[in-house]
Write a sequence for this structure.
């Protein structure tokens, strides 16, 4: 039986609960788990002040309730599964290096910032800076996968160095800003200034986009790697059609203000 | 022997097969070609990683390092050069060799890679777009040199039996028949009276030498012998292919079906043909 945490008292201010993580819970008795500290405003309280702890930990952690004000869930996670049966707050999976986080609802800003490995799967929408770099940090996610079923907001994959981000809906402005490498898929509409400052890496969209003048059109072709990725995303339930898998894409190179080795691939049937 | 499976895909079946034929050319015997290769089978779009038509090619060499060299040469010269192709690793296993990771240098700095899970793919810019290849290809120990010797009264009967056997053996997964249309007439024994040769004609099965060779294995009613060589990913594949081949080759005019392992000098495996047929009956 896996461990279950159920929110019984909604926090009045955002609750910082980085103890909701397999790495912090593994090996602890339920009584010890209940005593783990969480930051509620400027006060340190017990996990049990907000959550009911049931079951026993077998590598899987199920969290129930509206956790949209609970931050840092699965932060620093390296293995196991965290399954949030509802919404999740900001900094979900921050700096995670392994394991899997699933959120059945929406997630806040900063989903898996500076992620190094593992997988974060959000069924609903997510906020700003998914997979991004912390402010002042030179590099965003360096590995792993983030898959969002719905929409995301600005600066998706900010400073991304490696890994995969896929968004089933649309994204806000500055998708892939300052990207160093890695792959971003946005199946819906992207906002403006996609790829601003990107050095390398790939942004793919199935919709047309308004691109910066520092991106140059190269050609319309069928990138050989795309079917592998699109099939992979289709298996996740994202809305990838057969014509996308076999389709052709317009390749735009940029950003010319940087290395000019990045690419934006826009579906061009 | 060591083996690798290469999945070649292309815009159409025609181009995939063109690349596969080119890659498996001049690869009949490790003795003279440094590797043995063949088209395992055509692949439908549903069976390939990128949903395009393709071909599965098996390549065999004496060791993993030799296999790496042959993969780099043949994928580089025969697959990358063929319009619209991509090239994928077709085996799962622990040991792998660097292939796309070396071919990438053809990109002259314009190459880029994509990593999906633990798999890294190299994108090499070419004049019709990009050539895509897996960075690493799995290699595994395999069984080479399984063989059938078809002894017949005349060439027509021997060819009929050989073609029938080849058709049946090619239906078995995990094997290739590396010789022209699967059949070899210049069967060889290990060694030679000439020091520079690793192999020489198998005089025991040459009908023209029946009268003068004390090693002849041919009866008076045998005037033609053809051999089918089979390489497989494992011993079971080879056994299945040999059994299918024998059943198909048993036709009028065929006097005997035999095989050779040359006193163990050909390799560690010895598959008794009678035991295969008995197992099939059981």
């Amino acid at each position: 039986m896996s461990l279950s945490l159920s929110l019984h008292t909604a926090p009045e201010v955002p609750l910082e609960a980085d103890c909701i993580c397999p790495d912090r819970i593994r090996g602890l008795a339920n009584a010890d788990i209940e005593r783990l500290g969480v930051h509620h405003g400027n006060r340190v309280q017990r996990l049990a002040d907000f959550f009911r702890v049931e079951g026993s930990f077998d590598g899987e952690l199920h969290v129930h309730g509206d956790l949209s004000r609970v931050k840092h869930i699965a932060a620093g996670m390296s293995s196991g599964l965290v399954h949030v049966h509802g919404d999740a707050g900001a900094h979900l999976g921050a700096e995670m290096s392994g394991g899997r986080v699933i959120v059945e609802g929406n997630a806040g800003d900063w989903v898996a910032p500076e992620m190094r490995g593992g997988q974060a799967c959000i069924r609903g929408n997510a906020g700003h800076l998914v997979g991004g770099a912390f402010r002042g940090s030179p590099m965003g996610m360096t590995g792993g996968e983030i898959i969002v079923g719905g929409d995301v907001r600005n600066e998706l994959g900010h400073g991304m160095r490696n890994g995969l981000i896929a968004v089933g809906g649309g994204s806000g402005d500055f998708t892939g800003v300052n990207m160093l490498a890695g792959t971003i898929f946005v199946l819906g509409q992207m906002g403006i200034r996609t790829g601003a400052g990107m050095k390398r890496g790939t942004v793919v969209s199935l919709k047309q986009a308004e691109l910066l003048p520092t991106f140059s059109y190269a050609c319309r072709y069928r990138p050989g790697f795309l079917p592998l990725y699109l099939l992979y995303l289709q298996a996740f339930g994202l809305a990838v059609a057969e014509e996308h898998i076999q389709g052709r894409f317009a390749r735009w190179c940029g950003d010319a203000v940087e290395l000019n080795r990045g690419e934006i691939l826009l579906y061009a049937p | 022997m060591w083996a690798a499976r290469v999945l070649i895909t292309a815009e159409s079946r025609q181009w995939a097969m063109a690349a596969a034929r080119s890659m498996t050319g001049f690869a009949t015997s490790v003795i003279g070609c440094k590797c043995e290769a063949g088209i395992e089978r055509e692949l439908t779009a549903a069976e390939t990683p990128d949903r395009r038509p393709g071909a599965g090619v098996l390549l065999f060499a004496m060791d993993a390092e030799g296999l790496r060299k042959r993969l780099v040469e043949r994928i580089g010269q025969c697959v990358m050069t063929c319009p619209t192709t991509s090239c994928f690793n077709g085996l799962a296993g622990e040991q792998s060799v660097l292939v796309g990771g070396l071919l990438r240098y053809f990109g002259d700095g314009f190459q880029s890679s994509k990593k999906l899970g633990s798999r890294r793919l190299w994108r090499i810019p070419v004049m019709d777009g990009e050539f895509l290849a897996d960075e690493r290809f799995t290699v595994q120990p395999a069984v080479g040199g399984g063989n059938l010797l078809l002894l017949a009264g005349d060439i027509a009967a021997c060819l009929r039996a050989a073609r029938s056997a080849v058709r049946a053996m090619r239906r078995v997964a995990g094997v290739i028949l590396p010789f022209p249309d699967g059949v070899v007439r210049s069967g060889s024994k290990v060694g030679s009276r000439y020091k520079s040769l690793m192999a020489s004609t198998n005089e025991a099965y040459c009908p023209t030498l029946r009268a003068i060779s004390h090693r002849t294995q041919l009866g008076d009613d045998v005037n033609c012998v053809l051999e089918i060589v089979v390489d497989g990913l494992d011993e079971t594949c080879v056994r299945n292919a040999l059994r299918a081949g024998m059943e198909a080759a048993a036709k009028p005019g065929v006097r005997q079906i035999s095989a050779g392992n040359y006193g163990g000098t050909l390799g560690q495996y010895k598959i008794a043909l009678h035991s295969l047929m008995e197992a099939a009956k059981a």
Q: What stands out?
A: DSSP finds seven helices and 16 strands in chain B. Residues 243 and 274 of chain B are 10 Å apart (CA to CA). The first helix of chain B runs from residue 13 to 23.
